[in-house]
Structures are given as C-alpha cells and as structure tokens.
Design a protein that fits this description.
Elements lengths: L1 E9 L2 E8 L5 H9 L2 H9 L16 H5 L1
Antiparallel strand pairs: 1-2
Length: 67
C-alpha cells in the first residue's frame, strides 16, 4: 500500500522517495493465534509453570484488583 513520500537529504542532495507499508488484519491474526493450542494454553492457564514463566496482563495489576 502506498503511504506517501519522504524527503531525504543525502550527500547534500534532496530527493523524494516513495514509502510503502502493509496492512495486517489484526482481528484475523488474533483469531489465528488463539486457535493454536500452545497459545491458548498460556492465555487460559495464567499461572506459573515449572520454569517460573508467568504470562501477565493488565488484569494482574493492582488497579484492576482494586476496582
């Protein structure tokens, strides 16, 4: 997807370069990730395993706990 132009100064010369990007379908990407059993396991589990790894998010914070 064309985003526009950027003005670049290099070696005393000013040029305009085209800039491109991609659009990532966020909702579909999250659905695909959550359909993977190994990802869903860590989302639902929410406690430490034998290695001490713990997934955290804003629900683990004191603000959510107190409100």
């Amino acid at each position: 997807m064309y985003l526009g132009r950027a003005v670049i100064k290099s070696k005393g010369k000013i040029t305009a370069q085209k800039r491109y990007g991609i659009c990532v379908p966020f909702k579909e990407t999250v659905k695909a990730l959550l359909s993977l059993p190994e990802v869903w396991h860590w989302v639902v589990r929410r406690n430490a395993d034998n290695s001490g790894f713990k997934m955290r998010d804003n629900c683990d914070g004191s603000y959510v706990a107190n409100h």
